[in-house]
Amino acid sequence: MASVFPNLTHRELTLADKLRGIRWDLIALITAIACIGFALLYSAANGNLYPWSERQMVRFALAFVPMVAVALIDIRYWFRAAYWIYGISLALIVAVDLRGIVGMGAQRWINLGVIELQPSEIMKIALVLALARYFHSRSGDEIRRFSTIFAPGLLIAVPVGLVLKQPDLGTAVMLVANGAALMFLAGIRLWIFAAGAAAAAAVAPLGWSMLRGYQKARLHTFLDPNTDPLGAGYHILQSKIALGSGGLFGKGFLMGTQTHLSFLPEKQTDFIFTILAEEFGLVGGLTLLALYMVVTGYGFAIALRSRSHFGRLLGLGLATNFFLYAFINTAMVIGLLPVVGVPLPLISYGGTAMVTVMLGFGLLMNVSIHRDVRISRLGESQVG
C-alpha cells in the first residue's frame, strides 16, 4: 500500500480498524426506519406482504452488503472516482432520454435486464461526490471568486436540464437544492446566491412556459386544491383528509379508511406518510420525523469530525440530501409544497431510491471511518 501512496508517513487503516469504525448505532436507526416502511407497505397492500413489503425487504437486505462495502473502501478512491461516477450517472440519464422506459407519463427508467434503473436517483449521490471533490481542490481565495461558481453551476445545470426533460420536477428540485446547499457550505459568498436568485426570478416566465400542463396544474392547485377537487387537487385533498382523520394516536394499524378504501392515491410511494399519520396519528408522524432528524444530526456530526475538506463536504452533502428527501416529501403531502413526486427515504416503495439512500449511508460511514485521513488536492493523503 505504501508504494501506491508514497506520501503516507503513518500506518494505514487495516480492515479490522475499519470494521471497528462502522457506526452500528447509525445502522440501527436506518434499520428501524426501514422496518416502519415495511409495516406501512404491508398496510398499503391491505395486510399482505405482496407486492410491496416483501420486495422492499429483499431490496433492503441486498443493499445492506454494498452499503458496508462502500463504507470500507479507502476514501481516496471515492475522491479520485468522483468525476467518473458523475460522468457515468450523466451518461445513464442521457440513455434514459434515448431508450428509457415510460411509466406514469414520464420517461425516467432504463431497463438493464436484471433491474429497471432510475439514473436520476443515482445522480443525487454522484453530484455530491463531484461537488465535494471540486471544492476540496480549490483554495479559500479561489472559492471566494465569482468565476469559481461556473464549473459547479454547470455540474448542477446539465443533469437538472436532462431530468426536467423526462419530466421529473421533484428530482430536479432536489438536485438544485442540494447543489446550492453544498455550494453554500463550501464557502460561496451570499451575494452570489442573491445574484443567482435574481437571475432565476428573471427567467421564471421562461421556466413556466417549459412546464408540462399537469405540472402547471399542480402549482395552481397547490395554492387552492378546491379549484379542481376531482382532478389535479384530488391527491392533496385526500392526503389532508387522511392526515386529519388520524387525530392524535391514529385509527390503529390496518384500520385507515382512506388507505384501505382506495381513496388515497400513490399510497405506496409519494403519499405513504399519510398512511402512518392516519393509522398512528400525530404521535406516529412525529416519531418518524424525530428519527429522520436524529439520522440527519448523525450525518452532520460525522461530517464535522472529518479532518479532510472532501470528507466534510461529502458528509454534509449526503446528510443534506437525506434531509431534503424527508422534508420535501412530508411538506408535499401536508400541503406546504406542491406535489412533485419525491419519495420518503427508506419508507416509500422503490428499488433505485432504496439502493441510492443505502449507498449514501455507506459513503457517510466511509467519512466516519476515514475521519483522520487528510487528503491533498490530488487525492494523496496522510493518516493522523
Report on the structure:
The relative contact order is 0.16. The radius of gyration is 21 Å and the shape is globular. With 384 residues, the protein is mainly alpha-helical. It has a 3-stranded antiparallel sheet, covered by helices on one side. The two termini are 16 Å apart.
Task: Reconstruct the topology from this structure.
Layout: H1 15-21, H2 24-44, H3 53-72, H4 75-99, E1 101-103, E2 106-111, E3 116-117, H5 119-136, H6 140-143, H7 150-165, H8 169-186, H9 190-210, H10 213-223, H11 234-245, H12 257-260, H13 272-305, H14 309-333, H15 351-369, E4 373-375, E5 381-383
Antiparallel strand pairs: 1-2, 2-3, 4-5
Structural class: mainly alpha
Measured between the Cα atoms of the first and last residue, the distance is: 16 Å
Strand content: under 5%
CA-based shape: globular
Average pLDDT over all residues: 85
**Count, helices:** 15
Sheet of most strands:
3 strands, antiparallel
Order of helices and strands: HHHHEEEHHHHHHHHHHHEE
The low-confidence runs, each spanning 5 or more residues with pLDDT under 50, are 1-10
Number of domains: 1
How would you write the strand order of the largest sheet?
A: 1-2-3
The count of DSSP E runs of length 2 or more, i.e. the number of strands, is 5
